[in-house]
């Protein structure tokens, strides 16, 4: 028994090392005006909460890649597109992630640095808040240093380490006189394999079961209640929707190519392998 447990723990440790892939998105290869970006094979959607946020390439040399000036970033630029309480999220559909750090410029609507304001950073998983912290001081007030960007270090945010928490959505909200935000050099860890091993549920309040896994097509979904399941490819594309009723449901994904897919409901997520 001890030997089996030790083998299981070792396997989990190896899995963590294998799937914990750190990457930094600098936006330089993204399209100007895009409302999404792709890094390390994962699609992130840019969700505008207050004001419209997109990848910006209209102001070359206004970005920061963590060590030097670059050209592209996420912001809410545009005439009349800055206001108090401005906010946006980046969210994945088929992978989970952890946040190591990112760089942000927080300014007045006209881009003036040094005004008083706050930045609230919130991490969510399936709509549930996993952490939220507000930074109130220490914002860069000059473009002479790091091109006006301020480092947000999730390993030590207000004395706490949030870089080890798995999320699928990161939200940034400005307060006070901050009305214009730039977001660049986003360093994150791709962690879908750590949390979502085959048939492993990330939120286990409901007793859903999906089998066989792997499958060559047929799937049985045992649902605790009437539930809609969306199936996403590894690239984050929605490829199939299944309306499951309470009880045992028979379905099929024979038409899908071989690969790894994410099956998600409003509160649960499973990784399945199509052979």
TrEMBL record:
Please list every transmembrane segment annotated in the UniProt record, as residue ranges. Answer: none
Looking up Pfam families in the UniProt record yields:
Por_Secre_tail (PF18962)
Q: Which domain of life is it from?
A: Bacteria
Q: Domain Secretion system C-terminal sorting spans what residues?
A: 210-273
Keywords in alphabetical order, please. Signal
InterPro entries hit by this protein: Secre_tail
Q: What is the residue range of the signal peptide feature?
A: 1-20
**Signal as UniProt keyword:** yes
This one is known as Por secretion system C-terminal sorting domain-containing protein
Organism whose genome encodes this protein: Chryseobacterium takakiae
């Amino acid at each position: 028994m001890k030997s089996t447990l030790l083998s299981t723990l070792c396997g989990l440790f190896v899995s963590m090392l294998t799937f914990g892939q750190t990457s930094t998105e600098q936006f330089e290869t993204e399209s100007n005006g895009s409302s999404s970006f792709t890094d390390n094979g994962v699609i992130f959607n840019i969700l505008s909460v207050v004001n419209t946020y997109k990848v910006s390439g209209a102001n070359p040399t206004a970005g920061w890649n963590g060590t030097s000036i670059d050209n592209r970033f996420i912001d809410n630029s545009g005439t009349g597109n800055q206001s108090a309480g401005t906010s946006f999220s980046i969210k994945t559909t088929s992978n989970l992630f952890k946040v190591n750090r990112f760089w942000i410029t927080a300014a007045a609507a006209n881009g003036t640095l040094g005004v008083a304001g706050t930045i609230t950073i919130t991490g969510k998983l399936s709509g549930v808040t996993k952490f939220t912290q507000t930074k109130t001081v220490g914002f860069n007030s000059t473009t002479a240093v790091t091109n006006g960007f301020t480092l947000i270090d999730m390993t030590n945010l207000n004395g706490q380490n949030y870089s080890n928490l798995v999320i699928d959505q990161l939200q940034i909200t400005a307060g006070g006189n901050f009305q214009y935000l730039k977001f660049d050099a986003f360093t994150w860890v791709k962690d879908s394999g750590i949390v979502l091993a085959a048939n492993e549920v990330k939120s286990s309040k409901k007793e859903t079961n999906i089998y066989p896994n792997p499958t060559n097509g047929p799937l049985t979904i045992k649902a605790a209640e009437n539930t809609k399941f969306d199936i996403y490819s590894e690239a984050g594309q929605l490829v199939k929707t299944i309306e499951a009723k309470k009880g045992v449901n028979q379905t099929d994904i024979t038409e899908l190519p071989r690969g790894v897919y994410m099956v998600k409901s409003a509160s649960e997520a499973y990784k399945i392998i199509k052979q």
